[in-house]
Amino acid sequence: MDITYTAEEQAFRAEVRAFLKDHLPADIAAKVREGKRLAREDHVRWHAALNARGWLAVHWPKEYGGTGWGAVQRHIFDEECAAAGAPQIIPFGVSMVAPVIIKFGTEEQKRHYLPRILDGTDWWCQGYSEPGAGSDLASVKTRAVRDGDHYVVNGQKTWTTLGQHADWIFCLVRTDPAAKQQEGISFLLVDMKSPGVTVRPIVTLDGEHEVNEVFFDDVRVPAANLVGQENKGWTCAKYLLTYERTGIAGVGMAKAALRHLKDVARRQARAGRPLIEDPTFRRRLAEVEIDLMALEMTNLRVIAAVQGGGVPGAESSILKVRGTEIRQAITDLLRRAVGPHALPFVPEALDAGSNAEPIGPEYAGPLAAQYFNRRKLSIYGGSNEIQKNIIAKMILGL
Amino acid sequence: MDFSLNDEQRMLEDTVTRLVRERYGFEQRGRYGQEPTGYSAEVWSLLAELGLLSVPFSEADGGIGGGGVELMLLHQAFGRGLTREPYLATVVLGGGLLARLGSEAQRGSILPDVIAGEAMLALAYAEPDGGYEPLWIGTRAERAGGAWALTGAKTVVLHGDSAGRLLVTARTAGDVNDRAGVSVFLVDPSQAGVSVRGYATIDGLRAAEITLSGAKAELVGPEGGAADALEAVLASGCVALCAEAVGAMEQACDLTLEYLKTRQQFGAPIGRNQVLQHRMVDMRIALEQARSMAILGACSLELGADVRERRVSAAKALIGNAGRFVAEQAIQMHGGMGMTDEAAVSHYAKRLVMIDHWLGDADHHTTRFADLPESTEEDA
Predict the structure, then answer these.
(1) Which helix (H) or strand (E) holds A265?
(2) Which of A4, A305, A307 faces B380 most closely, judged by CB atoms?
(3) Superfamily for the B7-119 domain
(4) A392/B295 CB distance under 8 A
């Protein structure tokens, strides 16, 4: 038993760190660290920098332009990226639709779509959730009716993250309304520029526009855009939900957030003394740090099992539940740390280069909004209650 | 990054697991508790015969040089069986401190008997007003001619009533809570200057209040410079307790899960209720987090004190909370049965809650973790 990284793994960490130092644009990292808004262009630039190094598709097989990295390398990469203030890689193309295309797509689909994901030609978004179908994904109502060489799609998707930037959307659509719930679903790729596609913003409780509703009104989609077999889309959906889940704990992001929290607590004054010297605050900080140490070790245990050829099963659900709870606890402490300066709401100050005069310390600006934003963590990707259902069934046999 | 065991470790795990399985059924355990010492002399001899009492000692001292992982494997099995034998008191704490501080002659005269199962030790460090702070030592050591004499009181000394020799912390200089001036002594508890009041603990073990009134004592290790060794040995003790808690949590979770699947109410197993399912999931998550911290602690024992102390305190803190959570939920989900002495689960619950009271509870270790300086960026 050895919980240290090997010399090769440490060398790899150094290589990633050196790359980030040279190629992560400083203005983007600053935005991430200061909690400022990221533009589409920022994400595109960062993806391009990663792609130039061959590191965008971290978990694709090498033959399709992936890195071929093992689970430990991917973990180190995630950790270093978060520590350096890199934006998260937008997952919808690289981590979601691409693995499905690689696994179930035709040769032609692979040849067409994969390079465009790598070079940034196509920005993808996810068309899974529908009004009335949150964690109960299989109750998809959006219809696709075959009409010659096309499907005609009608319906609505929702919670479509960054759909306002997207060129393409991958959708679960119902192709056989007579079949049982999980049958009769197909996996369809839709060009967002198709006539009949409408995107409407959903403003979230932090005042931000991150998610959208997407409407389909007699949208004609070439039948060639079907991935896998008609009515077998649930197989693709399930595959995607279990694919590469070792990063789900978000340990790298949580560690970066904890460092930020300590930094804020050192700078923040509380009745004339640095907050970090306040015993109650120190106590809360210690508790969350200890929880994070335990999560990191649990994550490494799962990663080591995957590296050894295992497939992460319902353990991913444990990582998701604890990872999101801990990240929420950290954002909760960040909000509390700034005391009354969590109250002012000046959204324009979140634009980099804004002239808005900060109220209270500059770092306080985004913290309350971020706290509310991060409530999403325990809801999306299968709510934490759904994860517990999965653990009860798959691990405990209840 | 490798969480697998090597062949020797797997053999060790098999050996101790078999011993606990064959010798530590619920009723057998009940009988051992009736012995005057509170444990089974027969099981102790068996531990010696199987070589398990030698595990942590160096080869020079007649042991096999086991480290944190070996300690973890043993105590995880002990936790599954809720064993009562004084492995922690004699081998890990008493033996561990003697091995670290003792002269060749001292080690040579005692450790072979410990390894043979013939000598029992106890570490008397805690004092009535010190809470969980090991350096809070008011017991005084004075030179009396060529020898030392100890005066003071030690409280809740694990297995202090069955030990043939006590290792006692006392001050040769300084004030309570000073790091300097802490010394360790060997004391024969049968002498007139020592009173030992033994009693049962609520988690099925034995402990003693020990009063020293000019007790004759033999210095072990450097005069006034034993604090580092004491801390290191208490860290080993914490790792042992963490592993024991994981073993006990495994059993408490298994028993509760089984109960959820079999106990019928309103015409269905109670485990059909989602609220109980999620509670059980929370117990399982707590167990996995605890297991991770037990591993982290075990793998940090041989590291430098700065890294070790912080990680071990983190582990003991998390496991104190996790163990209490599992214990409380296990009782709750067993309903009235969980309240009875005849149900095994209640004994696991008591041990789990009380592990938090040995060697520092979650509050103590969380505060300690917060106060210890962070060592320079460590990976994993």
Answers:
(1) helix A251-267
(2) A4
(3) Acyl-CoA dehydrogenase/oxidase, N-terminal domain (1.10.540.10)
(4) no
Count: domains in chain A: 3
d(CA A105, CA A184): 18
B175: contact with A, CB 8 A cutoff:
no
Instruction: Place B378 in a pLDDT band, splitting at 50, 70 and 90.
Output: low
Residue A333 lies in a domain: yes
Query: Is-contact A79 A252, C-beta < 8 A?
Result: yes
Segments forming the whole domain that contains residue A289: 245-394
User: Collapsing DSSP states into helix, strand and coil, what is residue A22?
Assistant: helix
Confirm or reject contact between B255 and chain A (CB < 8 A).
Answer: no
Q: What residues of A are in contact with residue B277 (Cβ under 8 Å)?
A: 388-389, 392, 396, 398
Write out the E strands in chain A: 124-127, 143-147, 150-157, 168-174, 185-191, 197-203, 209-222, 226-227, 269-270, 273-274
Q: Average pLDDT for residues B23-51, to the nearest whole number?
A: 97
**Confidence (pLDDT) at B376:** 64
Between CA B289 and CA B318 the distance in angstroms is: 8
- The verdict on B299 touching A (C-beta cutoff 8 Å) is yes
Contacts of residue A389 in chain B, CB cutoff 8 Å?
274, 277
Residue from B246, B263, B285 to probe the interface with A (highest A Cβ count within 10 Å): B285
3-state helix, strand, coil in chain B (%, to 5): 55, 15, 30
Put simply, whether B379 touches A (Cβ < 8 Å) is yes
Per-residue confidence at A241, pLDDT binned at 50, 70, 90?
confident
Interchain proximity A290–B317, CB inside 8 Å: yes
Please, which residues have CB within 8 angstroms of residue A90's CB and are 6 or more apart in sequence? A43, A47, A123, A162
Q: Is A385 a catalytic residue?
A: no
Q: What is the CATH number of domain B228-371?
A: 1.20.140.10
* Residues A219, A261 within the same domain: no
A307 to chain B nearest CA, in Å? 10
CA atoms within 13 Å, Cβ hemisphere of B66: 29
List A244, A287, A289, A315, catalytic entry: A244
The answer, for B369 touching chain A at a CB cutoff of 8 Å, is yes
Q: Determine whether the interchain pair A395/B284 forms a contact, defined as Cβ–Cβ distance below 8 Å.
A: yes
Distances (CA, A) of A172 to A97, A154, A216, A237, A275: 12, 12, 13, 8, 49
What CATH number has the domain bearing residue A266?
A: 1.20.140.10
pLDDT class of B58 with cuts at 50, 70, 90: very high
Average pLDDT of the segment spanning A234-249 = 82
Tell whether B273 lies on the interface with A, counting CB pairs under 8 A. no
CB contact under 8 Å between B274 and A389, yes or no, is: yes
Residues B294 and B300: beta-carbon distance below 8 Å: no
Task: Establish if B337 touches chain A: CB-CB under 8 angstroms.
Answer: no
The proportion of chain B whose per-residue pLDDT surpasses 70, expressed as a percent, equals 99
> Chain B residues with CB inside 8 Å of A398's CB?
257, 260-261, 271-272, 277, 280
DSSP-derived pairing of the beta strands A143-147 and A150-157 = antiparallel
CB spacing of B278 vs A388 below 8 angstroms? yes
Q: Which of A89, A116, A149 is the last residue of a domain?
A: A89
Q: Where are the alpha helices (DSSP H) in B263-341?
A: 274-298, 305-334
Q: Cβ contacts (< 8 Å) between A307 and chain B: which residues? A: 1
Instruction: Report if residue A147 sits inside a domain.
Output: yes
CA separation for the pair B287, B276 (Å, rounded): 16
Domain B122-224 has CATH 3.30.420.10: no
pLDDT digits (tens, 9 = 90+) for A270-328: 999 999 999 999 999 999 999 999 999 999 999 999 888 887 778 899 999 999 999 99
